[in-house]
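Thread amino acids onto this structure.
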């Protein structure tokens, strides 16, 4: 046998009757619902209210789950209150009577319309559980005398459960009243849904203004409870939400989904969200009341949900998520597919980043790189807007560009205006190759490539002094137009072709790949203490290590080939 005893909320000193709440338009943002609507809502949460009104009336007679009011032909959406006050009969004023006393319509088809607050779904699980006791098959198969003796031995437990059941509605009523009193002011800010009604002289107005316009202190005084009582029921609701939300590591990701998707959930996740929504209403109320969020409780259950509790209490159980917060949460769960977007002016930047990724991390991380080619400095005006746009999408977006033409001006203006992060931009003062190698090193790389050519090309040796290269490069830049300033790599290629009578025709990509390999070798051969100096001397290496690698570098799953 399994006894299902409910958990009641902490006491609340609410002295406002339902009549006052209704008359003041407290249901403006979340209207009363009839038994048909409540039955459908319960089903979405994995709870069964059965067919017809007999079961609901029985729960009312037991004092477990009572309607707030009864009304004839209750309709909403036109005015607040939805029905004239004289048409409403409130359950707490009427006492326990047969539901036929609330019937309306003709004698042949009498209709009873019980009305509930959707917040009453919070305790429905306890109500339905407390109305039954499950006996195991072994008990039911006992001989009748032994079975009766066994059940009689459990009578005290059953009587206790029945007593709790009969007081259940009373124990939850104060909390439901609190939520109804606060919902007009605190529900729309995080749900994004505002109910409005049309008034002849005012047009479309916010529904339920009386209870929505009062400040937190005024509401607290009007209700008659204390902020400590509110804090206690706030923590109570959060804990119930945690218990009902699946322990699958996705609790915060579910909270991050847009509100429109929450209605699609079924079963316990939907019921958990009800509790988090109710807790969020109180979180906002307490934040306004105290001038700061309520924070974490002094203690909570020692289970596996501690990290989730930290976030629920710290940020608000159902607080809206920004796009950046969603991205960060998906990244932490390793569920965010876009990796690093690299914006460059040609293939050189792509080659360097890919080779550094393969050589210093792992080749599998190259799949997380995306490259956008600006196709030269002429697209300078597109660099900053593109970087800004991609930064809101990818885990990180970076730009590696030359400080040529208008590129620097566009980039620096965007940084000054706060549109992009300066740390995600590498502006080469001269060129990617010249900023990261000396003339002598670049010549050495060319010698390495010339001595080990690809198939179909003969090895070529040459002798070139760094000073000769620098002079040639300066002359080339002097002769070229302002829109076509060659980098030192292009000057080296042209000079070597001239010095070898056309026998050596290097490709710039070959030089860049050789440079990237040199950078990888340097990192591998540099001690930890000397690494900062190396990163400073090779700007592209420092940029990769500080801005790209941390985003890509994730543990390789055990036993998986890479």
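Threaded sequence (562 positions):
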């Amino acid at each position: 046998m399994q006894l299902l005893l409910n958990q009641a909320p902490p006491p609340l000193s609410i002295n406002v009757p339902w009549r006052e709440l209704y008359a003041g338009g407290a249901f403006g943002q979340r209207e009363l619902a009839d038994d048909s609507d409540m039955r459908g809502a319960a089903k979405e949460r994995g709870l069964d209210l059965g067919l017809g009104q007999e079961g609901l009336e029985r729960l009312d007679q037991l004092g477990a789950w009572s309607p707030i009011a009864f009304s004839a032909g209750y309709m909403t959406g036109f005015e607040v209150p939805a029905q004239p006050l004289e048409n409403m009969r409130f359950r707490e004023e009427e006492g326990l009577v047969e539901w036929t006393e609330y019937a309306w319509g003709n004698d042949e088809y009498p209709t009873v319309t019980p009305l509930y607050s959707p917040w009453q779904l919070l305790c429905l699980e306890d109500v339905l559980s407390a109305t039954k006791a499950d006996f195991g098959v072994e008990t039911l198969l006992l001989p009748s005398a032994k079975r009766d003796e066994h059940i009689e031995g459990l009578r005290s437990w059953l009587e206790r459960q029945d007593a709790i059941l009969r007081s259940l509605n009373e124990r939850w009523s104060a909390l439901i009243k609190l939520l109804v009193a606060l919902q007009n002011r605190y529900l729309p800010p995080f749900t994004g849904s505002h109910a409005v009604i049309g008034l002849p002289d005012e047009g479309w107005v916010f529904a339920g203004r009386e209870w929505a316009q009062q400040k937190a202190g005024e509401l607290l005084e009007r209700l008659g409870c204390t902020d400590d009582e509110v804090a206690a029921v706030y923590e109570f609701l959060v804990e119930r939400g945690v218990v009902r939300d699946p322990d699958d590591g996705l609790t915060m990701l579910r909270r991050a989904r847009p509100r429109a998707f929450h209605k699609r959930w079924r079963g316990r996740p939907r019921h958990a969200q009800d509790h988090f929504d109710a807790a969020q209403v109180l979180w906002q109320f307490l934040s306004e009341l105290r001038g700061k969020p309520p924070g974490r409780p002094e203690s909570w259950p020692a289970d596996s949900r501690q990290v989730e509790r930290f976030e629920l209490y710290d940020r608000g159980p159902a607080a809206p998520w920004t796009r950046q917060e969603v991205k960060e949460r998906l990244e932490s769960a390793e569920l965010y597919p876009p990796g690093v977007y690299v914006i460059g002016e040609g293939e050189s930047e792509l080659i360097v980043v890919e080779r550094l990724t393969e050589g210093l991390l792992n080749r599998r991380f190259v799949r997380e790189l995306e490259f956008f080619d600006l196709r030269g400095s002429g697209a300078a005006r597109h660099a900053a807007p593109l970087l800004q746009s991609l930064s809101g999408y990818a885990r990180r977006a970076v730009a590696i560009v030359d400080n040529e033409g208008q590129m620097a001006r566009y980039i620096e203006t965007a940084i000054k205006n706060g549109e992009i992060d300066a740390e995600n931009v590498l502006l080469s003062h001269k060129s990617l190759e010249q900023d990261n190698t000396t003339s002598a090193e670049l010549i050495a790389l060319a010698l390495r490539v010339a001595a080990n050519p690809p198939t179909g090309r003969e090895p070529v040796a040459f002798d070139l002094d760094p000073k000769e290269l620098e002079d040639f490069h300066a002359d080339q830049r002097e002769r070229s137009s302002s829109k076509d300033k060659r980098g030192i790599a292009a000057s080296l290629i042209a000079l070597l072709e001239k010095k070898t009578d056309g026998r050596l025709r290097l490709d710039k990509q070959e030089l860049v790949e050789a440079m990237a390999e040199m950078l990888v070798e340097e990192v591998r051969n540099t001690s930890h203490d000397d690494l900062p100096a190396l990163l400073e001397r090779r700007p592209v290496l420092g940029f990769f290590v500080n801005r790209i690698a941390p985003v890509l570098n994730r543990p390789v799953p055990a036993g998986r080939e890479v």
